[in-house]
Write a structure and sequence with these properties.
The structure is a homodimer. Helices cover about 40% and strands about 15% of the residues of chain A. In chain A, strands 1, 2, 3, 4, 5, 6, 7 and 8 form an 8-stranded mixed beta sheet that branches. The first copy, chain A, is of the alpha/beta class. The first copy, chain A, has one domain: Rossmann fold (3-Layer(aba) Sandwich), CATH 3.40.50.150. The longest helix of chain A is centred in the middle third of the chain and has 25 residues. The first copy, chain A, contains 13 helices and 8 strands. In chain A, helix 3 packs parallel to helix 4, helix 11 packs antiparallel against helix 12 and helix 12 packs antiparallel against helix 13. Chains A and B meet through helix 5 and strand 3 of A and helix 5 and strand 3 of B.
Chain lengths: ~375, ~375
Amino acid sequence: MNANDAQTGSTAMKGGGYYSLSTVGAKDVIDGAGDLVIRALEAHLQSGNGKDAFTIADMGCADGGTSLDMIHRVVGQVRKHDPQRPIRLIYEDQPTNDYNALFQNVRATQPDGNSLATMPDVYWYAAPVSFYEQVLPAGTLNLGFSATAMHWLSAKPCEISNHVQAVGAQGRELEAFAEQGRKDWERILSCRASELAPEGRMIIVNFCRDESGQYLGNTGGINMFDIFRNLWENFVREDVITADEFERMTLPQYYNCVEEFKAPFEAPDGVAHLAGLRLEHIETRVVPCPYAARFHSGEWDAPTFAHFYIPTLRSWTESTFFSGLSESRPAEDRHAIIERYYNAYEALVAHEPEQHSMDYVHAYMVIRKVG
Amino acid sequence: MNANDAQTGSTAMKGGGYYSLSTVGAKDVIDGAGDLVIRALEAHLQSGNGKDAFTIADMGCADGGTSLDMIHRVVGQVRKHDPQRPIRLIYEDQPTNDYNALFQNVRATQPDGNSLATMPDVYWYAAPVSFYEQVLPAGTLNLGFSATAMHWLSAKPCEISNHVQAVGAQGRELEAFAEQGRKDWERILSCRASELAPEGRMIIVNFCRDESGQYLGNTGGINMFDIFRNLWENFVREDVITADEFERMTLPQYYNCVEEFKAPFEAPDGVAHLAGLRLEHIETRVVPCPYAARFHSGEWDAPTFAHFYIPTLRSWTESTFFSGLSESRPAEDRHAIIERYYNAYEALVAHEPEQHSMDYVHAYMVIRKVG
């Protein structure tokens, strides 16, 4: 069984290109990894490993829109290094992903006139399999990439009784999420260790809690996850939803801190270390919210900011929140509650725009498989 | 550009599992190829070629339902021969294919408890690329399979003025279709020749015109393609459609005869021969229409036969016929004409059921790449 099945439906991204359109920031995050990617790629190519098809994987690709420029850059670099070498490109995500949108994006012609679908000797595939499984035959992955995906856990270890995300969990609930996060990170690394070719590299860009305690939407100003929580609590008080429903609105996510990311590599008996993986580089970065930036620069007024800001939050929370609502409610009523919820959020942002921003906080990692 | 883009929309199979449900016969055709497939596989395995992942391709897979048993059989046989060897399974079809249905079918658990998605060391991918392109890196395909797919041409060379399919074409129109069929068959073989590993095998099961002039739906009784044609002609007479629309209802298909299939292999300067392909086996077979069989056995009465028979015809003709209708008609009207058309066909079958059957007429080919 695919490990993500347990949460299928609760974590599926909203389809139809919605994800890329509302995630300008996610693209900024990926573009910022470009130089790390190219340096890691160069180091791998210099190692002279293998003459088989050069295999690239985009793990947790969603519709592929945000990584397309980066993938083109990688393909171009491999080609420059070895014009004759075939390139195999694997787009990986959950079975419930919007693959039609992915295929459209990959086939689209770029401004330079290129399309991955028409470049000679570039072979591309979709693997509807999560990163909690091995997706490629052993020793065949030359360059792996993943951005803003691996905070999704393989399963929700428990509900969080007084919050919607592990950043607001406490006590045994927090421990359960941390433990799930630890096991899942080890499992992801084990699968990748099998896949990677000798001297292969992975560039992983994951949400994190950084050295000063910042994380997505919590970089000064109001804490975005507290707003998510508080607005639902208002709905409990107003009898729009029940206390049970509030509790079930728990995102199956965990943000590792740097030490947690490092752990499987550091001890000689660490899972990743034993499997031949080395953490060559880790740093945290804050990428500013592009929506708030437009408000602060004066390009957008408060209602416009609120109007464009909410969809980016909605794209990755809606399905979890929706599935927290009782199935005894008619689907129509559930949709109405969800609309009302994001409308309430939008009204809040329009009212006090200077307090809101979803800055991204990521750990950028380069991982090497020993040769 | 993908060569099939020109006809995208006009040849897309109707999605949502509709294809497999209405193509019991297509599965019979594939199951009948099983022993040929296994013998070719054994011959390849005995050649001892390669220790890389064993790569299987299902070319023109549609929703994968009809070939699933056969693919399981192949996977089992490879595993039996070499329990340690990873298996790579590539499902290939046009970008407009219903990939959601494909993913569901592949992931489904079989009666024996197995699923391709959970078998250890089986890696499966979708390639949304037509068989008129090279889909795999050179020399990496161990076993290719295709059934009832390669009669779809890469482009329609012209309209057929007085019929809907090349079997009813004459003169220069027939010549144009034959020439397109020749070029397309050569192009398919050239792409596969690049992909195949040394001593790799392909089993291709294509619609054909057999040695006695039979072809799909023309094995005695009424000629199915003539009915398609005549019902549209009735609609012209009744002013339901125009003469222009009748002419545009041309299926972009061509059925090779055995000599046409053989041609690229036989001359020393034949495209396939020069590329290292050898036609090891070709035979034609008629697989009886499973719908007509149920009528003749008394299991179904005439209306039931007609009710279940029409969807199998509709699954592969509707999009072409629909796109033949003028876009100046509202979409609603076009759908109504299509409904009326298949209703007329159904009424005809219910009225004279013993005249109707869509027997399959295929050429079964085994092709080897020299080592």
